[in-house]
Amino acid sequence: MATVINFKRSSTQNAVPTTGDLSLGEVAINTYHGRMYTEKNDGSAAVIEIGSSPKTLSVNDAYSFPTSDGTSNQILQTNGSGTLSFASAASSGVVTFTYTIGSTVTVISGNDDDSNALAYTAGSEQVYLNGVKLIGGGVDYTATNSSTITLVANAISGDVLEVVAITAAANLVQGYYTASALTATTANQVLSSNAVAIKGIKYVINATHASAGTHACEVLLINNGSSAYFVQYGDVYSTASLFTLSADVNSGNMRLLITPTNTNTTVDTFQIRHS
Fold first, then answer.
1. What digits encode the pLDDT tens for the residues 32-80?
2. What is the DSSP letter of 171?
3. I need a labelling partner for 142 at 20 to 30 A (CA). Which of 172, 198, 211, 260 fits?
4. How far is CA 236 from CA 20, 113, 203, 210, in A?
5. Which domains are assigned to the chain?
């Protein structure tokens, strides 16, 4: 007669053996879940789960997978310490809505071919008909509202209309904006101040004055933790220069400094940062 070999086992839901229950290399089974366990020792004794339907899953002792599924279109992300979780993907900032036209129409709205409802910011959209870019403002189409495009001429069956919408401008580039109203010509006023952990910034600077005109330029500013270095280029002005620039590191901050030529000068900056 064949010999029946029984492993240590438990039929209790969620029961897991401890190192006190098993010897090194010994196997135990939870018959409720159909899970197997064994003891390992790499200098520290531990019970691990083995088999095809584990309660938890780790890979090479480096990654721990989530124990439940995410929602549709979510992605796996890591916390940098080996734990994976589901999260919604960040928006690229641009969404394309595609409509395959089935009859003669001038109004485009509602769900597209992928069942996504049309949504855009008027003035930031681009519209293409059969690959040809249309002109807005009533020439080829009107952005009637944030959910409708009205064509001047009919789109007919078989045409393909695409609406490219900017949905999250901040995601297109890591950009920062400032607007400063400088009422005095004091030297080296702080135009921008950022922690030295931000190692490099590109600025687009635009200064305006009611009677002295406009002055624009670009600046690259970097630091090594104790000193700041910058280059100013592309200066263009309508009458004369409206400012001079300098830079320093002060109290742990990299600063771009400005000296206006005139009082009551407005200075706008757009910044692209790299930390």
1. 777 778 888 888 888 777 765 555 555 555 567 777 777 777 887 877 7
2. G
3. 172
4. 79, 47, 15, 17
5. 8-87 (no CATH), 94-169 (no CATH), 173-274 (2.60.40.1680)
Burial grade of 219 (CB within 10 A; 0-12, 13-18, 19 or more): buried
Mean pLDDT is lowest, of 16-25, 53-62, 180-189, for: 53-62
CA distance linking residue 98 with residue 202, whole number of Å: 36
How far is 167 from 181, CA to CA, in rounded Å? 30
Length of the chain: 275
CA 270 to the chain's CA centroid? 19
Q: Judge contact between 42 and 27, C-beta under 8 A.
A: no
Q: Of the candidates 241, 234, 243, which has an alpha carbon nearest to the alpha carbon of residue 186?
A: 243
Q: How many CA atoms lie within 13 A of 214 on its CB side?
A: 7
Residue 150: its H or E element:
strand 148-155
100 neighbors 113 (Cβ within 8 angstroms): yes
DSSP secondary structure string for all residues of 79-99? -SSSBEEEEPPPP-SEEEEEE
Give the SS3 label for residue 78: strand
| Residues 194-230: tens digit of each pLDDT | 999 989 999 999 999 999 999 999 999 999 999 999 9
